[in-house]
């Protein structure tokens, strides 16, 4: 029987990993302070935790002094709050944010975890990739080993999603196929499952055929996602079929998600409305549209690039831990 996470022997087993996590935290702060970033802290209980279709949020309630009650949610990301600060003129900012995602718990996922998120006004994708690479090389060993995979940080791999599908999924011409599920299935040589749409098949192929090849010998930046997967990224000015978004993989682990930020409030509203319809079709009604965030965008958000890094996973890479529970001081019992 496993010992409880509070047992002295349990903590003793985690302490070497936790010590490395502490060193990592100090090194990351030093990196951003040296680059004249401001560390910020934003609210955790919010009226709208995000508009991601497949993320599930934790609900809570605020009781006001007059007795009224307000439904709130534990944020799944500090993104909306930090972008409000960009509008206010905060300049380059970073945060170690506590975030919550319901229904997630395994070797790489915890329902409550730490997100390292930063935003750099005026930056584009190349600048953000360069800065992210500099951070990795500054705070991690030259070669990181995690879950049986060694990754050399001396060079990086950049691969567009279309290139990755051609190389690893046997799907040339991903962008020419567009959002045609039947055509994508035919190109990949697979059958559509019952009820499977283009997005479902896209992610099936990504998870089963593409991601197992990423971030192994060297870090992989998977760039220029199809516009249907833009999220809060802007479309590429020279090719509206793709969005200026990248994900980062190291040791075969997805470590980060980044955008050259969308600043058009009208397009952002349309995307939110489409995502809300899809999410409500899956899990039912939830929070109201974040009109305050859209008002901030109307006021004028500066051009910027931003990235969210799973800090617990970064700590796994730094320490050689095999599971996320090893780098948490008091992990949930099922992660200990």
In terms of topology, how is this protein built?
Elements: H1 8-34, E1 38-39, E2 45-46, E3 58-63, E4 69-74, H2 79-88, E5 93-100, E6 112-121, H3 125-139, E7 143-146, E8 149-152, E9 157-160, H4 161-168, H5 174-177, H6 181-188, H7 198-210, E10 220-226, E11 235-236, E12 239-250, E13 253-260, H8 265-283, H9 291-300, E14 304-310, H10 311-319
Parallel strand pairs: 1-5, 9-10
Antiparallel strand pairs: 2-4, 3-4, 5-6, 6-14, 7-8, 10-12, 11-12, 12-13, 13-14
Helix pairs in contact: 1-10, 2-9, 4-7, 6-7, 8-9
What's this model, at a glance?
The chain is an alpha+beta fold and 336 residues long. The protein has ten helices and 14 strands.
How would you describe this structure to a colleague?
This protein is of the alpha+beta class and 336 residues long. The protein is 37% helix and 24% strand. β11 and β12 form a beta hairpin. The chain is globular, with a radius of gyration of 20 Å. The mean pLDDT is 96.
């Amino acid at each position: 029987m496993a010992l409880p996470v509070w047992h002295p022997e349990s903590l003793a087993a985690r302490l070497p990993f936790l010590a490395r996590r502490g060193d990592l935290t100090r090194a990351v702060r030093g990196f951003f302070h040296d680059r004249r970033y401001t560390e910020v802290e934003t609210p955790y209980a919010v009226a709208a935790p995000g508009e991601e279709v497949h993320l599930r949020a934790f609900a809570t309630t605020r009781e006001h002094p007059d007795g009224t009650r307000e439904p709130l949610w534990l944020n799944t990301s500090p993104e909306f709050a930090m972008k409000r600060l960009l509008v206010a003129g905060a300049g380059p900012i970073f945060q170690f944010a506590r975030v919550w995602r319901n229904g997630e718990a395994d070797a790489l996922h915890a329902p409550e975890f730490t997100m390292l998120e930063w935003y750099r006004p005026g930056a584009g994708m190349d600048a953000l990739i360069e800065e992210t690479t500099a951070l990795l090389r500054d705070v991690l060993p030259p070669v990181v080993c995690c879950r049986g995979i060694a990754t050399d940080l001396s060079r990086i791999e950049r691969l567009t999603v279309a290139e990755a599908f051609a190389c690893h999924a046997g799907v040339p011409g991903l962008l020419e196929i567009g959002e045609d599920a039947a055509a994508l299935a035919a190109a990949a040589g697979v059958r559509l499952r019952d009820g499977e749409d283009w997005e479902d098949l896209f992610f099936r192929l990504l998870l089963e055929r593409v991601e197992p090849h990423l971030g192994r010998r060297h870090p992989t930046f998977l760039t220029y996602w199809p516009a249907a997967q833009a999220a809060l990224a802007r479309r590429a000015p020279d090719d509206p079929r793709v969005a200026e978004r990248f994900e980062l993989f190291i040791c075969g682990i997805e470590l980060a998600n980044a955008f050259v930020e969308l600043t058009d409030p009208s397009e952002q509203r349309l995307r939110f409305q489409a995502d809300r319809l899809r999410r409500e079709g899956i899990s039912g009604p939830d929070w109201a549209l974040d009109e305050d965030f859209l008002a901030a965008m109307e006021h004028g958000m500066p051009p910027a690039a931003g990235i969210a890094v799973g800090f617990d996973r970064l700590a796994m890479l730094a320490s050689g831990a095999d599971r996320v529970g090893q780098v948490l001081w008091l992990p949930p019992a099922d992660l200990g």
